Amino acid sequence: MDHGLAIGRAAELSGVKVPTIRYYEEIGLLPALQRTDGNRRLYARADVDRLAFIRHARELGFELDAIRTLLHLQDEPSQPCADADAIAKARLEEVRRRILSLRALEAELQRMVEGCSHGRVETCRVIEILADHSECRFHENNQAA
Q1: Model-level pTM greater than 0.90?
Q2: Could you count the other beta carbons within 10 Å of the beta carbon of residue 116?
Q3: Strand spans (E) along 48-126
Q4: Structural domain span for residue 22
Q5: Residue 40 in contact with residue 74, Cβ under 8 Å?
Q6: What are the backbone angles phi and psi of residue 118, rounded to the nearest 5°?
Q7: What is the pLDDT of residue 70?
Q8: Are 55 and 100 part of one and the same domain?
Q9: 60, 88, 104: which is the final residue of a domain?
């Protein structure tokens, strides 16, 4: 399987949907592809591997610009990996901030649920907090983060 895979087979092997593959080609994440006389794309193993790399990076939450840089680094393996490390560290910081935000959200929801007296809606703490944003601690904690 060096050359000659149809887009559907490349999608199957890489785990990337056909429209997404076309998009990645359009924005330059995939190099120019070989085409048949009928102008159908042909994918090599390297293209499928590149698509799998992009899919994995996207699953980890990397933005397309970061992926573009990582692909360039992969294409030039003799470069120092400082840029790759910086990209991964930045993503890690984003994840840590998100975790803190989710923990604050969890605490706020827990407070709302625990404050519920299971009585009538007129005394429902969940409804009260949702109706009056100043009662929401999550918003305060999220602004500070």
Answers
A1: no
A2: 15
A3: none
A4: 7-60
A5: no
A6: 60, 30
A7: 96
A8: no
A9: 60
- Any long-range contacts for 55-63 (C-beta under 8 Å, 24+ apart)? 55/14, 55/15, 55/16, 60/91, 61/91, 61/94, 61/95, 62/87, 62/91
Could you tell me if residue 91 is inside a domain?
no
Task: Say which CATH number the domain at 27 has.
Answer: 1.10.1660.10
Q: Bridge-partner residues for 41, per DSSP?
A: 35
- Is residue 42 within a helix (H) or strand (E), and if so which, with residue range? strand 41-42
Q: Position 45: which residue type?
A: R
Query: Exposed, middle or buried, 145 (CB in 10 Å: 0-12/13-18/19+)?
Result: exposed
Q: In this structure, is residue 112 part of a structural domain?
A: yes
Question: Above 60 in pLDDT, residue 141?
Answer: no
Q: Is residue 90 part of a domain?
A: no
Tokens standing for residue 19: 């429209």
Number of separate domains in the chain = 2
pLDDT of res. 34: 81
Predicted local confidence at residue 142, as pLDDT:
61
Q: Which two tokens stand for residue 52?
A: 């799998």
The two tokens of residue 109 are 């929801």
